[in-house]
Each structure stands twice: as C-alpha cells, then as structure tokens.
Amino acid sequence: MFVSGVDVGSLTSKAVIMKDDRIVKSVIIKSKARPWESADEVMDMALARAGLDRKDIKNCVGTGYGRDKISFIDEAVSEIACHGRGARWLVPSVRTVIDIGGQDCKAIRLDAKGDMMKFITNDKCASGTGRFLEVMAKVMNLDLDELGEMSARSKQPVTFASACTVWAQADVIQQLNDKVPIEDIAAGVNNAMASRMAILANSIGLENDVCMTGGVAKNNGVVNALEKHLGIRIKRIRREDPQIAGAIGAALFAMEKASGGVI
Amino acid sequence: MIKELLDASTVLNNKHVIQWKKNGKKVVGYTCSYVPDEVFHAAGILPFRIRGFGAADTTIGDTYFGPFVCSLPKCMLQLAGEGKFNFLDGVIITPGCDSMRRLDECWRKAGSDVDGVIPSFFFHYGVPHKYSDYTIKWLTEETHRLIAAVEEHFKVKITDENLHRSIKLYNQSRMLLDRFEAMRTLDAPPFNGEDALAVILAGTTMPREEYNSLLEKFLSEAENSPVIKNRVRLMLVGSANDDAGLVRVMEGEKAVVVADNLCFGSRFYTDQVEESGDPVSALSKRYLGHNDCPRMYGDYKRRLDILVQKVEKAKIDGVILQNIRFCDLHGSENGLFERDLEAMGIPCMRLEREYGPLVETGRMKMRVDAFIERIHQKKAIA
Q1: Do B366 and A117 touch (CB under 8 A)?
Q2: B337, B371 contact by CB (below 8 A)
Q3: CATH code for the domain in which residue B300 is found
Q4: Peptide bond before residue B260 is cis, with ω within 30 degrees of 0
Q5: Count of domains for chain B
Q6: What residues of chain A lie within 8 A of the CB of B360, using their CB?
Q7: B373, A119: Cβ pair inside 8 Å?
Q8: C-alpha distances in Å from residue B77, one per residue of B69, B100, B163, B206
Q9: Tens digits of per-residue pLDDT, B121-161?
Q10: Domains, chain A, with CATH or none
C-alpha cells in the first residue's frame, strides 16, 4: 500500500511516497507562487520517479502553508504535527524537535510516545528563519551551502548587534566594506541565527534527545552554533534529508489514516 | 444571524447611530468597559464603545505614540485622525492600561494640531486599580464628577430616577445575555464564536432598547437553529478583540469558540447592578468589582478561578491565551495562566498578534490547527 505526504513550504515543496514504513521516493523543488501548482509538480515528479500513478496512492496528507489549497490530498495536517511525527521517525529517541523552515521556525516537545506536548513558533518576522540566511547569503554573494561551511574556517566571528534581518543585512554590508574576512561574517550570521533560535527553543524547555529538521538543519554552522547556545548535543539526522521531515510526517499520518486510524 | 446585529458590529457609524443623530441626539464614545453606560443613557445620550476596527494603517497613531505601544489605541487615534469618529459629541478616556491612558494626551495633542479631530467634550475618567471600600468611594466620587461634567456640557439633568430606570434596562440586557451565554455553552451550541462576538459587539454600538429587542429576536431564532457538533471547544482569553474575523480564523472547520473572558466579550455583561439604594454607588460597585481585567491588582487567583470554572462549565477542550503585541498586562498574565492551567491538565496555546487588519492569518491558522491536533491526541489517549 502506497501513501504519500506533500509539504508545500514558502521556499521549497517536498513530496514523499512511502510503503510499509519505508520511503519509496522523495522530491524537493523550489516553491512556485501558487501552492497548488507546487503540490501538483512535486507530487507528479515523485510519482514519475517511483513509476507510480496518483490512483496507486491509497492516502495522501498535505501540510505546509499551502496545505488547504491542495486539491488531491485526503486530509490536511499542520506542519507542526507533521514535523514532530517525521522527526520521530527519523530519530526515534527524539523528545525535542527544532525546525527551521523558509519563513518560520518552531520548537516542538514530544512525549515518550511521540505525541506533541507543546510547541512554539516565531512571530511574524524573518529573523531566525531560512529567509534570514538566504538574504545574508545573497548580500555576501554566496550559495546557502557555502554559508554553512564557512563557519568552520572562521577565526574571529563577528557579532551582530541585532538579529533583525534588515539591520543585520546593513551590518553585513558594513563588514564587507570594512574588508572583514567573509568566513568571519558568515560565522557571525550563523551565530545570530542560532542565538535567535535558542531563545525560542529554551522557552519551551528542552528535553533530550534534540534534533533539527528543515532545510537549515543541513547548515552545520548554524547547528554547531545552536549546540553551543543551548549547551546540549543536537542529534544529526542521517536516515534521510532533514528537509523532508514534514513530508515524511505527512506520509506517516496518511499511512495511519489508510490503516483505519484517525488523525 | 440577524443582519442588523452583524452590520452594527462591523460598521462604526451604523444606521442606528445615524438615525440617533438625525433625531438631534448626542453620542459619547468611551474606550474601556469600566465606563458605566447607564450614566449616558440616563442623560438621553447614546454611549458608544470606541474601537480601532477598520484602521488600515497607523500612520497618524504612530506620529503621537512611541513604537513600543499596543496597536489598539494607535488604531483608535488613527480613526479619530481620519475623521471616522466625527459623529461623536464627546469622548471618555480611562486608564484601562498605560497605553490607553496615553491616548488621552495623544488625542488631545492631535486635536490641537488638526481641527475637528477632538470633540468639544473630552473627559478623563479615573478608574482605580484596586477594589476596596476606599476605591469604590473614589470611583463613586469620580462618577459624580463625570455626571456633573456631562450635565454642564450637554445641558441635561441626570436624576437618580433616570439612573434607576437605565440600570433596570441594562440589567434586562444582562439577563438576556445570560441566556445567550447559556446557549453558547451548550454541548451543541446553535451559533459559533464568530456570531457570538458580533452579537456582543453590536450591543456596544446601538441604543440599548433596540439592542434588547434584537437580542430577544436573535435568541428566539437561535432556539430553532441547527446546532454545531463534533468540534473542538475553545475558550478565548486575553487582550481586547473586536474582530469577528479573528475568531473565524481560529474556529475554521474544526473548532468552535464557546466561551471567553474578554472585555469585548463576556466581561461586557456579567453581573447585575444593584437596583436599590444609591444608583451611583451601585454602578461604581458593579463596574469596579465585576471586571476581570488584569489591570486590577492582586486579583490573579480570582481571575484564574473564573477561567477554571468556565472551562468546567463550557466543557472547554483548550484555551487560547492571546495578547496584542506590547500588551504587558495580558502578555504577562497569560504566562501565569498557561503555567497554572497546563498544570491542571488544561491545554493552552499562547498567541501574540497585532491589533488591526487581519493579515498573515496563515501562521496563526497553522498554530491553531496544531493546537487542535494536540487536543485530538490528548482525547485519543484518554
């Protein structure tokens, strides 16, 4: 029995097809302006790569900002619940999930059975989100991947007075004009991001094990800085790409539903 | 839903106000639920609760207030600056909180800068922050000062007899709203939280006689309306909310708001005013004593008990504790509520928002959906 999860985010859209608790295929694409177009494209790509058709999918759950606009899903579930469920599948011992997506960040506490106990998200501000890193990387003329790697080479990370995206952007330009080494600026950006996220994560109380999901989980500079800020080890996700955690969670909810469960 | 109630809840200068003014009568606006409507009713003046509803931006408000101030008084001043409150013949400002108290100075300054922004009657009604024999005496004296000012400015006489009559009328209204509250908290209520808020808001914008009549009609219709079942039952607590659209976003298809503890909500109608004895003293006791706003000192435990009782009575599944950004009173008290209610096993969700146009509802919806899912999980385990 095939099931699927589709996560339409602000920056990227993800689709996961699962069978018997295994991932058959997953796809990540850049999101389009309209969420239903992103959902159609990413799901069709995943199906094509898996050699499947829409009618082969027993149940599909949608999540992400555009979840209510997707026509082909059977049910919509919030990304908070999906990231919690997906993270649990990726790291079975996880009790705290930190997710940094394109335009929001969340911290989710799970109980011993993996059910959501508590959660918190950022307010309407790009600070502490993937968008913050994207803006800074663009100013520095770097790829997002390069931004993460640069922290390791930094000898003296700069400190930003503000984690506000607008002010920090002005600060980055100032540092570049002052010929500060780019790896020190990059490390400062990653630190500022981690510092902002740490405040949010600490406010719900951390419990081990802690893991990170979302695209920013692939940025080692941020993950390492966050470990320092929180004073704990963050378990790295190896089983799959942490960016598809929400879509995995959605597929797991779909599996539950297809098996007669209630979401 | 009766269209007239809905219209009155969403249009400031609604048809009731227009008709009232056409008849040559006066309207006085006030900013806080601590102001006794009965005083104005007894003077033949329409009391009108001032809101910031409909403000599209705060360019005028920002000019007079600082940046770290709740957006509600900014939106009120914005509308005043745009001439949206030109139908008001008077305004009463109270120290509901520091931001609201500051509205007094900001509105006066705006009035001195631009002609027509401030009405000729502009009165600061001091309301104490504690409830005691001494403060009831204080508020009674303050209410006498208000009465004297209204009498002098509008050339009217507010007699005890008129006050008694007004108290009786408003108590009838409160009795009807008690019936409304009982229907709202039924296991299968006949109306949702969005409509409930519209009904309550309408009462702050129209003559009370007309409101009571519309309310009776609404209740009769509700008795035969289809009921709402199988939804997560929410209670809404915290900062002032006069936007039924916000409740709509929270309710969606999966939840229904069946109770609240808001000043544009159940706090508007709880508790009667004593109908015998000195009317001014009776009004002061009710308005100072009934109100469960965190502006009042040393009453946290009582406010928590009220929430717990409401949770039990209305069979609440989860409590949304929301506050407008920079609303320290509700922001800090919501933190205490969350701690104590969660410890009792009552799921809570805190939400900070801006007052004003409903934008960025996606993020809010995502949080509320996740909260509803958490409640479903809790029920499934139980």
Answers
A1: no
A2: no
A3: 3.40.50.11900
A4: no
A5: 1
A6: 124
A7: no
A8: 13, 11, 31, 21
A9: 999 999 999 999 999 999 999 999 999 999 999 999 999 99
A10: 1-91+244-263 (3.30.420.40), 93-236 (3.30.420.40)
Virtual CA dihedral for B99, B103, B106, B111, nearest 10 degrees?
Answer: 170
With CB atoms and an 8 Å threshold, state whether A81 touches B370.
yes
Q: Test B374 with A104 for CB contact under 8 angstroms.
A: no
Chain A residues within 8 A of B324 when measuring between CB atoms? none
Nearest to A116 among B325, B360, B377 (CB): B377
**pLDDT at position A215:** 85
Confidence class for position A126, pLDDT limits 50, 70, 90: low
- Whether A125 and chain B come into contact, CB under 8 Å, resolves to no
For residue B100, give its domain range.
Answer: 1-382
Residue B243, φ and ψ in degrees, nearest 5: -115, 105
Q: What is the SS3 assignment for B327?
A: coil
Which secondary-structure segment (H or E) carries B375?
Answer: helix B361-381
B307-333: b (≥16 Cβ within 10 Å) or e: bbebbeebebbbbbbbbbbbbebbbeb
pLDDT band at B268 (very low <50, low <70, confident <90, very high): confident
With an 8 Å Cβ cutoff, are B373 and A78 in contact? Answer: yes
ipTM above 0.85, yes or no: no
Helix (H) or strand (E) run with residue B169 in it: helix B160-184
Tell me which of A198 and B168 has the higher pLDDT. B168
